[in-house]
Amino acid sequence: MAAAAFAAGIQNALAGGGSFLTFPALLMTGLDPQGANITSTIALFPAQVSTGITGRREATGTPSLSFTALFVISLIGGALGAMLLLKTPSDIFTAMVPWLVLFATIVFAWGSFFRKVDDNSKPLGPYAAGTLQFCISIYGGYFGGGIGILMLAVLTLSGLKLKKAAATKNVLAAVMNFSAVLIFIFLHDIAWKQALVVAIAATAGGQLGAYALPRVNERAMRICIVLLGLALTVGLLLHYHAG
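^ that's the sequence the OP posted. Answer follows.
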């Protein structure tokens, strides 16, 4: 679990999708899907804060939307998503998980490899970018898996280069999860032993990932993210079908 969390911290700092590693690792400790999701959100939060602070100088707004606006949108959306999760029956959430992961992977793959960009292409406007970020924030508070991938897709569609978008989504991920963590801590039983292990390992991995971010190959990073998402989707479908 610590190894998965360390890798998740690196992954989150680079491009997102770290919960694709911590979520199944927590499932293997005996937690139900909803409990694993909530524990993963809380455990990854310290790493997200640490990583966001490390790369804060690179974080920025989009050409059409200020960073302050993105900050507020993420804070409100994260709280709404967390409250929605606590109202969702566990069996319904379990059935949704593989499809949530697949959706996040497809969006990122399209934005990375299939969207045509030319000199005449226009970035997303403020209303489109703000609405999408709000929806992602709700999704982030609700599930968490793939929020980095989704934010990278929207931020790059909004006109940011990948590495600027990665630094920005690191800060916004911490912001939206701040709301969710506050709600989860007081309204849900947390597997604190697992959460502590994941938090320490993910924070260490996040610092390494933030240091490596300016040095990684962008195309290789995108390919790895898509392959990880597809593998997790298949694994979750097989896991739940067998169960």
